[in-house]
Amino acid sequence: MKIEVFEGLLESNTYVAYDNSNEGIIIDASADLKSICDFVKDKKINIKHIVLTHGHCDHVHFINDYKQVFDDASIICHKKELMVLKNPEANVSSFILGRDYTYDCDYTLVDEGDTICFGNTKLFVLNMPGHTPGSICLFCMDEEIMFTGDVLFASSYGRTDFLYGSINDMMESLRRIRRFGGSIRIYPGHYESAQLKDIFGI
């Protein structure tokens, strides 16, 4: 799998992940659309899915713009995240952007244990609540890669003080990620990638 990162709102990461088949996905929707389009066109990538790790506005704000361009792509989120996406207080748009936004799309809903596939690549959906109820991580077993959204960063973890956040759920999610082992490399929702061994000292 090849991974390209683009910086979006509040230094959030939008990823384009693709493989040798030139099918790919976009993970989160906050980076400049033109940069994404230029890269996808240059690499001749067929975008199959747009996956939202969670529903906070700094990760989803341009989802409708992305959908207009990649109109054949499904928009994927966890089934518990609809109440975040459609509630301005929960998606923190009123807090971060100073205006209430709701993000209404024709979502494809996933749950723990589902898979998201593109080309020859399979990502397992892991529900990791705490930052939001429907926060997901995407785990590629074959390549020991995990996209962690705002659950886990290289040197910290996501906030739990927004609406529907839970510190108890977050601690359990972090314990669960730790059990995957030190060789896993994470690609978080903010900041740089890192291996779990360097984060947890394992």
Notes on the structure:
The protein is built from seven helices and twelve strands. With 202 residues, it is α/β, with parallel strands linked by helices. It has a six-stranded mixed β-sheet with strand order 1-2-3-4-5-6, covered by helices on one side. Strands 7-8-9-10-11-12 form a six-stranded mixed β-sheet. The radius of gyration is 16 Å and the shape is globular. The two termini are 25 Å apart.
Key structural traits:
six-stranded mixed β-sheet; 202 residues; globular; 7 helices; alpha/beta; 23% helix
Q: Beta-sheet strand percentage? A: 25-35%
What oligomeric state do these chains adopt? single chain
- Residues in helix, %: 10-25%
The count of DSSP E runs of length 2 or more, i.e. the number of strands, is: 12
Parts with pLDDT < 50 across at least 5 consecutive residues? none
CA-based shape:
globular
Strand count, sense and barrel status of the largest sheet are: 6 strands, mixed
Compressed to H and E, one letter per element, the order equals EEEHEHHEHHEEEEEHEEH
Separate helix tally: 7
- Whole-Å distance between the termini? 25 Å
The whole-angstrom Rg is 16 Å
Spatial order of strands in the largest sheet:
1-2-3-4-5-6
The overall pLDDT, averaged over residues, is 97
* Helix-and-strand structural type: alpha/beta
